[in-house]
Design a protein that fits this description.
heterodimer, A: 253 residues, alpha+beta, outer membrane lipoprotein receptor (LolB), chain A, 13-stranded antiparallel sheet, 46% strand, B: 471 residues, 2 domains
Chain lengths: 253, 471
């Protein structure tokens, strides 16, 4: 009897889960799925190139990025030669920067979270993922729209009152089939558009379909843009928490 | 002519009255001139300090650099431009600089600093940093040595404690601070100099190493041989970070600069900011530095530089200082105004008295047939003569003092000097040479006298002879 009961329960659970999957997902679940798809459920390792475009010049920085959940992140600059070896570490609420030229470990104060990372349009907060798109916002589906030939959920996310985020609200376009962030609009507290993020060149990486090119366009600065190209990405490789340490910041390659 | 003779004789009829009136005019002119001279002299001295130890009279910059002082707003240091600038008749030398801001740190101490990449050999033409290296310093150890030296007088030991940690770029300032007379200098100074001597190394192009301002070195607790860490944003948003050995300590006469300046060799500084071959400014050393000559040079040079470059004059670059001085100047003028007001009433007082005293005399003169017009003109001449005596005497004495002061500026010593230094001023009072300001001061005083003549004129013309005779 017991076995039958448990089998039944499992079946019911699976069934309802399938139902949920097939039918209406809650907006929060859509965001979570898309977020986890891009960042990995447990861990993620990525090699990326960032191109900073300015009206009179542009510059490319290459870096590697390790993340484990929301709590830990480590970023290592690999190119150009002058910046190579610099690393950034996030552990829980705290962040550090290691600079090998001066052998200094610098703690980044929370007040610097909204400042540009390595001179780009990305803020330190974007790189270190201090805030969470899932937990720090209230989500609402506001419609369905076509973007780049794909049908997307259009979700409006309003920052929770007590959340430590730098945006007032965001509007995100998420691919219905593959749960990809294709377009995002980020607004400040006063409702002004601050930047637009566009995902394109969808590729398969480590068995997942993800946009491999992300363009970040600030609304106010003409001729400015930051492009991130993902060269390689691995998901859910085991990384020990001890990897994200100040000692490792100096060693990691 | 006759009138003038009469007026002159009248003056010396009552010598004391004449002298008192001229004396009040004398003091008005004397104080006004000396005050103005010191004021103008100290402005000029401060400007010169700022210009010669920092900005220079003219700089060529990237057109956006002044408004947004970031290392992206730089220009290439090209030989062609340098040649063209040097071809100008008034340009003595071009001094390449790379200037930016950084965070400087030593252990837990951190401070925002002004980083200046210089070519030490070329700076000789303008800021002459090498001259500003600290040569003597009264460290606690040095003071202890001075205390134990049996040959030194007590007063010197006391003053040495007062000036603890002061740095000196020459021995004469050290001598003044320690209150040593020139007579005793030859006997006392050698001992003190050996106690307090401070050894600096030099910086050269191509060799990492820095000079830091005296006040900054004290804040960061850095000495020669220590390492300073600099971190900033470089060219095109790269990271600029480096650590350098401190080769020397410089003392800049501007406290605002002294507490934040770090000198690097030009190429090392460009390397730090990833801006090889770039300059933030090209300062020009002038042969003639009068305002007019500079304005003309600016005009000529503006035609030479390319369109993304800009020629800046020292007034623009020292805007804060210029407006501070202007405010101070206005304050000084108000003080002068008050001085004039007091003197004007003094002069008017004597004139009033004089007129009252001589009422009877006037009455008699008119009664025996002197024309009122003639009487008035004699009276006017008397007043003009009195004021002339006062003005000439005042200007003469002031000139002697000013001419002496120009050659020998007042330099304070001992405790007084300390007070000046605590306010961030150089303990020095400089005079401005005899100049156009003389004319305005003298004209104002003459005008004052003319105003006070109105009263006796009215009295004379409105006089009733009968009443006057009875006075």
């Amino acid at each position: 009897m017991k076995t039958v009961k448990s089998i039944l329960t499992i079946c019911l659970c699976l069934g309802s889960a399938l139902l949920v999957y097939g039918q209406d997902l809650s907006p929060k679940d859509i965001i979570r799925k898309a977020d986890e798809k891009f960042n990995g459920e447990k861990t993620g390792i990525a090699t990326m190139a960032m191109t900073i475009v300015r009206p009179t010049w542009e510059r490319t920085i290459e870096f590697k990025n390790w993340t484990s959940g929301r709590e830990y992140a480590l970023t290592l600059i690999t190119s150009p030669a002058k910046d190579k070896g610099q690393s950034f570490l996030k552990r829980h609420q705290e962040m550090w920067n290691w600079n090998p030229t001066i052998s200094r470990l610098i703690k980044l104060p929370p007040s610097m979270m909204s400042q540009g990372w390595m001179g780009s349009d990305y803020t330190n907060d974007d790189i270190l993922k201090e805030s969470s798109v899932v937990n720090d916002y209230d989500h609402k589906i506001v419609g369905e729209e076509e973007y780049d030939g794909r049908t997307c959920y259009k979700i409006k996310m309003v920052a929770k009152e007590d959340a430590a985020v730098i945006w007032g609200h965001q509007v995100r376009w998420i691919d219905k089939k593959d749960f990809l962030f294709l377009k995002s609009e980020l607004y400040d507290e006063d409702g002004f558009l601050v930047r637009t993020e566009l995902g394109s060149e969808i590729k398969t990486m480590d068995g997942r379909l993800i946009p491999s090119r992300i363009e970040l366009i600030p609304a106010e600065e003409e001729g400015q843009m930051t492009i991130i190209e993902i060269k390689e990405m691995k998901f859910n490789e085991p990384i020990k928490d001890g990897f994200f340490s100040q000692q490792n910041m100096k060693r990691v390659r | 002519m006759n009138n003038l003779k009469l007026a002159w004789r009248n003056l010396w009829r009552n010598r004391r009255r004449t002298l008192i009136t001229s004396a009040s005019i004398f003091f008005a002119v004397f104080f006004a001139l000396v005050m103005r001279s010191i004021q103008l002299g100290s402005y000029d001295h401060m400007y010169k300090n700022a210009i010669e130890s920092y900005t220079g009279y003219i700089q060529v910059q990237h057109k956006d650099f002044w408004d947004e002082k970031i290392v992206d707003n730089t220009f290439a240091y090209d030989q062609q431009l340098e040649k063209q600038l040097l071809a100008d008749e008034n340009v003595e030398a071009t001094i390449p600089r790379f200037e930016s801001f950084a965070l400087a740190s030593n252990g837990p101490q951190t401070k925002g600093v002004l980083v200046m990449g210089v070519d030490p050999a070329k700076e000789v033409h303008l800021s002459n940093v090498t001259d500003k290296l600290v040569k003597y310093r009264l460290t606690p150890k040095v003071i202890e040595k001075i205390q134990q030296d049996p040959n030194l007088p007590e007063k010197v030991k006391e003053l040495a404690v007062l000036f603890e940690n002061s740095a000196y770029t020459n021995s004469s300032r050290l001598q003044l601070d320690l209150g040593i007379d020139d007579k005793k200098a030859s006997e006392l100074m050698p001992a003190i100099e050996t106690h307090a001597v401070y050894k600096n190394g030099s910086i050269h192009l191509g060799e990492p190493g820095v000079w830091v301002g005296d006040k900054l070195s004290q804040y960061l607790q850095l000495g020669i041989g220590d390492t300073i860490v600099l971190i900033s944003q470089g060219y095109h948003a790269t990271t600029a970070a480096g650590k350098y050995e401190i080769k020397g300590i410089v003392k800049i006469p501007l406290p605002d600069i002294d507490n934040k300046i770090v000198y690097l060799p030009l190429d090392v500084c460009q390397g730090l900011f990833n801006a090889e071959g770039k300059l933030t400014s090209l300062a020009l050393a002038m042969k003639e530095n009068q305002d007019k000559a500079i304005a003309q040079t600016v005009q000529r040079i503006s035609a030479v530089v390319s369109e993304n470059q800009k020629v800046m004059e020292w007034q623009e670059m020292n805007e804060v200082m210029v407006s501070q001085m202007e405010a101070d100047d206005k304050g000084g003028q108000i003080m002068l105004g008050i001085l004039y007001l007091v003197i004007a009433f003094g002069v008017f007082g004597t004139v009033l008295m004089l007129t009252a005293e001589r009422k009877r005399e006037f009455g008699v003169l008119v009664a025996i047939g002197m024309q009122k017009k003639k009487l008035a003109s004699i009276m006017t001449m008397e007043m003009l003569l009195i004021s002339l005596i006062g003005i000439i005497a005042g200007a003469l004495v002031a000139s002697i003092l000013i001419l002496y002061g120009v050659e020998h500026p007042i330099i304070f010593k001992g405790e007084t000097a300390k007070i000046f230094e605590d306010y961030g001023m150089e303990p020095k009072m400089v005079f401005w040479n005899i100049d156009t300001y003389y004319i305005s001061q003298m004209v104002i005083v003459a005008f004052m006298v003319l105003l006070s003549i109105i009263y006796p004129m009215r009295k004379i013309f409105g006089m009733k002879v009968v009443n006057a005779l009875r006075a």
